Amino acid sequence: MKALQTLYKQTFGIEPASVVTLPGAGSNRVYVRFAAADGQTCIGAWGKDVEENRTFLYLARHFSAKGLPVPRVLGVSADEQCYLLSDLGDVSLHGALAAWREQGYDEGSELAEEGYALLLRTLRRLPHFQVEGAQGLDFERLLSPNCFCRRSVMFDLNYFKYCFLKTSDLPFDEMRLEDDFEALTEALVEGVDNETNFLYRDFQSRNVMICGSDQFMIDFQG
Length: 222
Fold this sequence. Notes:
Elements: H1 2-12, E1 18-22, E2 30-35, E3 41-46, H2 50-65, E4 73-76, E5 82-86, H3 93-102, H4 110-131, H5 150-168, H6 174-189, E6 208-211, E7 214-217
Antiparallel strand pairs: 1-2, 2-3, 3-5, 4-5, 6-7
């Protein structure tokens, strides 16, 4: 926390008026919200994995230069363990949809249509990241593995099996599932050009922030 406050003062020349620790959402990083006396806020992040930090910061700057909706990098500490980002608020796509579900909206209702429209706008962002975001991208600066290979696909599929299916008590035929995994893997890696497309692996609702009328992506892995 002290290192983040030091970076804040170095970046803005003032002490923050308030510091609030934010939920980590399953990450090993520490997040805080800084507020100045005039109400201006920003997000501070601390992570001990410097390579992971470097990759995130590189991608954030690269995507921002492409005009893609990501948080702006405001400052980085000399040891690259701390950085400051623009504040995109507290409402994630996941949170917004969950709140609407709690209201018990009906299929075809105005609230349901608003939710579907928000999902559609968000999904339309994805090809821009994967195609436009790949232009001029230095893939050697991404975390390993930096290409979409058979191992990468199987890692994600097995994550789904062990962290979702096996914990949900849903009945399934494991041998048939493995057959499906193998078929899907073959289809995904066949003809893949890892030099012209960026694979946004963690494009999910918790990593999309709703800020005003726009959607911003806050976590990306190559």
